[in-house]
Specification:
Structural class: mainly alpha
Number of helices: 22
Number of domains: 1
CATH topology: Growth Hormone, Chain: A
CATH architecture: Up-down Bundle
Radius of gyration: 22 Å
Amino acid sequence: MGILKDFRHSSRLAVLVAVAAAMVGIIYGYDSSNIGGALDFIAKDFHITSAADKGLLTSYVIFGEIAGALAGGWLANRFGRQRMMVTVAALFTVFSLLSGLAWDVPSLAVFRVLLGLAVGISIVVVPMFVAESSPINIRGALLVLYQVATVTGIIFGYIVAWALSSTGSWRLMLGAAAIPGVIITILLVRLPDTPRWYMMRGRRADAARVLERIDPAADTHVELNSMEQDLAEAATSKKTGASILKQMVTRPYRRATIFVILLGFAVQITGINAIVYYSPQIIKAMGFPPTDTAAIFGIPVLVQVAGLIAVFVSMSVVDRFGRRPVLLTGIGIMIVAGALMVYTFAAGAAGQTDPTNVHLTGVYAMLGFIGLMLFNIGFTCGFGALVWVYAGETFPSHLRGAGSSTMLTSDLVANYVIGVAFLPMLQVLGGGGTFAVLGGFAILAFLFVLKFAPETKGRPLDDIRLFWENGGTWPTPAEATAPAAPQGDD
């Protein structure tokens, strides 16, 4: 396979840095799914009965993630990408243990919010770190690797919940997340930071040393001069009063800011974390009894394994076919899956008295399983993989931290909406109505990506700014080398 050849020809440090950074996705994925397995047991111990309260319990972590995502870019610029990732992994370890020791709902809420804070920082810092530490020819694949790790973590979360379901020990389900946290912390401690961060701190010799080890084929002098020019332009803008916020909301980067806000929101509003958080509840809604733990936890594992395979496919083609085709294909599969789920619940409801409480049997239960699997496959090979690519590639280096924070904060706001609204919506609209709503969002997302998403395949990281400076199109070679025209605020 071409991707394996590219990996073999890349430096050992480049692959090691990207793999270690992407492994942070394991703890993000585990945290996303273990609450789904633990939810019913927590609710039983703490006497939580309403769907709205269960949704709120699931969403506590998202409050922290939003705060972490807002601060993640600034923290990465101030303290370094590598240092923040070590901090994130260590904090995740501590607050996972404390979540397992919670004595009531308020204490669990506090620990989950603080856990979310660490996760929110990580989802901003990791794409920055990987994008800035990757050779051009495999940058997309290494960014997608974060999604591979995330889905792997989701699978581990369901397997642990399945293994512990007979004991009902939600404390072990949540606390077990500390194990990968410790391992990943150790992996990250000895990694160098990125060449761009060293350049931001005026450490050109360190930047050159790391760049030469990451990409021996690169022209180090040219690459560092390009970074230096970008940073000099940022410093000039700052001296003239153009703050990072002002640069992001005025030309030429206003278009980029709008793009990442809407893309981040589309990633979650289409409903993937409803599948991750509430797969056991969805499986029950499909007619499987609560006592059938093999189905309640085993089916989500199979769904996520299919998604993991899809991520590997995405990783193998994203640097060959481009970002847009892979993303659009993934969203298209989600639309088909949504339509199948609507049909399945509608047809399965025939003859049943309550369309909001459908129990699928026989062929309809199988179609529901296929629909869930297709939905997850479409997401993981499309949105799930490419959100990290666009988070790492959209903005120039001096705006990358703020841009990633903006995109992933929007993502988490939509995640919160889905986390809180999904169970009540499932009760009111039923499975068919709920997936019709999610399918409608997927159609809007497809049209948005088709119209506005840039193709960044094969572009040097510091050249992607040219797309936005040219009004949302790639300039011709002659235009790219011409002096930039003055940009207004309108």
